[in-house]
Structure formats: structure tokens, C-alpha cells
Amino acid sequence: MSSTTRVAFLLPLLVVPVAHAADAGSNATDVQAVVDKAVAYLGKSQSADGSFSAKRTGPGVSALVAAGLLRSGRGPDDPVVAKTMAYLEKSVKPDGGVYDRGLANYTTAVAIMTFKEANTNGKYDTILKNAVRFIKGLQYADAKTEPSDPKYGGVGYGANDRPDLSNTQYFLDALQAAGVPKDDPAVQRALKFVSRCQNLPGETNDQPFAKKTTEDDKGGMTYVPFDVDENRHKTPEGGLRSLGAMTYGGLKSFLYAGVSKDDPRVQGAIRWIRSHYTLNENPGMGQAGLYYYYHTFAKAMTAAGMDEFEDAKGMKHDWRRELFENLRKHQRPDGSFVNAGDRTFGEADPNLATAFALLTLSYCKSPAK
What we know:
two-stranded antiparallel ribbon; disordered N terminus
């Protein structure tokens, strides 16, 4: 998520014959068996107050766990879910945000998605309205900076923190979940920032680094579009490296903001993904943030509406089945998932990694015919 907790295209090359699409995905029974083990683990790791890993991370991991449980078929009345939702309700601040130990945008954005999943009979309508207003106030908008500033439209951890693509894609995820229309000014401002994170020089990215993009990075997305001299993703040519999770995050952000599937930005991201398709690592980051990557990958592929993906070598991938198999082999005997060596995204915490795994598994079943 952060340094503490991180938490069918209209392209000829991606057209999938119906016969293949009908067979795509993983067997629901197989997926459910993995889900049930993960759910059982989380039921045992919940704190007495309903939270998960809250002493270190505040409400962020708890929101991710609740969202994962809800998307796995557990209802708001499920004992574990109900306790976590009660904890999250108590975490709502007077300003509408849902946070504790910093990371106000991340944790509030995830909480918005969670409250939306649990919002039966309008129970959380007011919380959702206030939370959306809160995160909109964190955005670098006209009151903070000019449209020419590369920070414009972006969102960081808090009100005055440097914006980045990870925070901004979560911001857009939350607005999408809350039903904020694509033409909303906050969405369109965020689109401007996301476009500037893409290694695609031209009308939508006027930043100097984009002009130094290598062919290998072209079309992909980087973490922040500025501070090149100090940026850890700087390339020898003076550009910025494209990263896996950021590219998938950028792709779905484009689609959530209403960008056409034949737009050069969408096609550019797809071309980069074709050349860097893998589930063995988070491209550009190795094993760091692997479960964050899996979740972002699954959401982007789903937003794109495709069942089969053809990489640059012409190999066709049933991504749902491949993703499921990768998750299944990583599940531990107690049902949890963990990325033991990850200190960048916090996935050494099994509650966080298992929450991301559950969310990812919710996209792995065969699509409805």
C-alpha cells in the first residue's frame, strides 16, 4: 500500500474468439476451496475490537480484509465482517476521512470501497458522501496549484504530501465505487495527473522525462512524473522506468475516467503490458508488492473486459486461471498468504497479503456466460 502498509479491448491484437472466452477462468469449486481457507485464517487473526493489524497500520488493513470477505460472499451480517465494519465506523473522523496513523487517502479510499460493498438499505450513504468529499479535498486542484504543475490532479498520502500514481489510482477506485460520474472535475483532474505518469510523450504528457523514454518503457507508467534527479526509478537516459503495478493501475484509471479503448494512452499501456506480461513478479519491483500487483492486475483486466490476453510473443493467456494457480501455490497451510521479504509494501504482514489475495481471488472465477 505505502512505505508503511501499501496497501475486451477494441484492439485487433486483443480480439478473443467466443469459443476461447467461454472456457476462460478457474473452476469455481477450486477457487472457493482456497477462499474458504483464507477466510478461516482471517477469522482467527481478528483482534477483539474487530480490527486487523491496526496497532501498526490504523484502519487500512481492516478495510481491505472486510472488502475481501464481502467480495468472497460473506455478507455484512457475517460475524467477522460485522465486527470489522463496527470498527471502521468508529474510525470515521469528523472531517469524513477514515484514518488513524497517516495514509489518509489510502485508508479512506479503501474504506469507501468497503462501505460501498456493505451498503445495504443505504446504511452507509452518509459515511460514503462525507468520505468522498474528504478525499476530493486531498487532491491537488485549482486552489492548490495550476494545471501546468505536474502535481495537478494527483493525490498523495495526505493533504500536503507529494502526489503519486499509487495514491491517485486508489482515489479513482474509490470515486468509481461510490458512483462519481466520469465527467466529474475531480476525476478529470486525476486523469491529467495519470496521463503525465505515462511514458508516452505528446499532447497528454508534457513532462521532460517522457521525451527521454526508452522503447522498453514506452507506454508504461511510472510512480511519480517529476523529481527526476532524485527519483529511484530514473533511467540512465534521464527518463523514468515503467513499473508493472503502476501500468495496470494507470490502465484501469484511464478506463474509469472514460478514456476510449482506442485512445493512444490505453493502447500504449496495453502494448507495454504485452511485452512485460508476467505473474512471477511485479515488473520493475521484483517480489516487492506482489499481492498489490496481483490485485491491481486483476482489476485492470476486468475493467478492460477481456478473458484472454495475447502477449508480445503471440502466447495466449487465460489470465484468471494463471492468476489463480499462482495464488493457490502461494497459500500457506493455515490458509494465509505472506510476502516474507517485502518491506516496501508491508506484505510481510499476513493479514495484508491475505486480504489482497482474497480480493484478487474474487476476479478469478470463470466469467458469466
